[in-house]
User: What shape does this take?
Amino acid sequence: MTDLLYTLPSFPTKLYTHLIPSLEKNLITTTDLLTLDPLEIAKRAQLPLLDVRRLANHVLASLQSQLGVVDGKEALRKYEHPPGEQYTSSLKQSGSKLASKWSAISTLDPVLDSALGGGIPTTYITEITGESGAGKTQFLLSLLLTTQLPPPHGLSRPAVYISTEHPLPTTRLTQLLDTHPHFSSLPPQKRPSLTRIFSIQTPDLESQDHILTYQLPVLLARHNIALIVIDSIAANYRAERSSASTAGAALGLRSTQLVQLGHQLRSLAREYDCAVVVSNQVADRFTPIPTSSPPQRPP
Assistant: This one.
């Protein structure tokens, strides 16, 4: 349970001081509380079943509230249920019901929009991953334009593009406007405009932290931004890690910083009712297959 406050910093652990030491001793994590049967946890930690179930319900309710699946009052009401009483978790709502609660930016692909419940949702963080050259930036550029469209495709609001590697590719944006079937079919006065895309470049972690903490909130408030794009989210962290002398310590620091960044971006998304979309480059490393020498023929 040492990871509980790391996952939910404001969780009231004082209510469960009689449980946590035994849970820590038996290496019960927050993930275990959410996924394992309370009876199994109670047996492993030798704790009362009803107390374990109450703690698990409270952790689940706190996560639901933090993620916006339910509001704080509903989460509290569920937590105040008697330990033995049955209730239905709001996490079991259908995807269509959850999707109806948020605004979304269309991907202009009906199949993908259907899979996403309407498109890229506001108040949440969406991560686009893939290898170099997979089309991540092209997808992000289309979102920068789509968000300017009126509903149901867009939100009729501007966007901001935060680059950690290359400046905003205005040439590619112009090509999208001219060649994309949806944009090119619009009359000139209804087309998205490059002037409604704000561009910020963050070449290192220091400038990135300053911009996200101080400049970005001001920009969101002044211009009613609907979409924040960060391309790519881990580039500056990779650069810092590569120059560190201790790889293990650098990796641990990087993980902590990324968690803090995620919390910061989620807070901005919820406060300003905007979507946050980040790209992340991934790569595979293949170890060479050892080749065995051909068998020697007997003399």
